């Protein structure tokens, strides 16, 4: 699955266009490498997303094309 689509489906970022902009700015890494919006993500990957001064680390647990809002948090877990 594409990175920008996963960020939207998982609701880590609300809109796919915003996910693309954040990725294009170099603020998203997959397993320590800067990622493009079209980068493929898979189960077990560690995402790091920079939100200003805050850094969010999440491990991908599951990939789905669509999920309900209450199920979106089951697609990843926050890693400290």
What percentage of the residues does DSSP assign to strands (E)? 25-35%
- Helix percent band: 10-25%
Please summarize the sheet with the most strands.
5 strands, antiparallel
Question: What is the straight-line distance between the termini?
Answer: 24 Å
- The CATH topology comes to Structural Genomics Hypothetical 15.5 Kd Protein In mrcA-pckA Intergenic Region, Chain A
- N to C succession of SSEs: HHEEEEE
Mean pLDDT: 95
Low-confidence spans: none
> What is the highest CATH level, the class?
Alpha Beta
The figure for the number of domains is: 1
- Rg from Cα: 11 Å
Number of alpha- plus pi-helical segments: 2
**CATH homology-level superfamily:** RNA-binding S4 domain
The tally of beta strands, per DSSP, is: 5
* General form: globular
Specify the CATH architecture: Roll
What structural class should be given to the helix and strand makeup?
alpha+beta
What spatial order of strands do you see in the largest sheet?
Answer: 2-1-3-4-5
GO molecular function, one term: tRNA binding
Keywords: Protein biosynthesis, RNA-binding, rRNA-binding, tRNA-binding
Subunit structure: Associates with stalled 50S ribosomal subunits. Binds to RqcH, 23S rRNA and the P-site tRNA. Does not require RqcH for association with 50S subunits.
Family: Belongs to the RqcP family.
Can you walk me through this structure?
The protein is of the alpha+beta class and 80 residues long. It has one domain: Structural Genomics Hypothetical 15.5 Kd Protein In mrcA-pckA Intergenic Region, Chain A. It is 20% helix and 26% strand. The protein has a five-stranded antiparallel β-sheet. α1 crosses α2. The longest helix is centred in the first third of the chain and has 9 residues. The termini are far apart.
């Amino acid at each position: 699955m594409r990175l920008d689509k996963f960020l939207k489906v998982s609701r880590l970022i609300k809109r796919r266009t915003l996910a693309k902009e954040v990725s294009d700015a170099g603020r998203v890494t997959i397993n320590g490498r800067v990622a493009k919006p079209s980068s493929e993500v898979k189960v077990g990957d560690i995402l790091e997303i920079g939100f200003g001064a805050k850094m969010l680390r999440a491990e991908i647990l599951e990939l789905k094309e669509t999920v309900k809002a209450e199920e979106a948090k089951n697609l990843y877990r926050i890693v400290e």
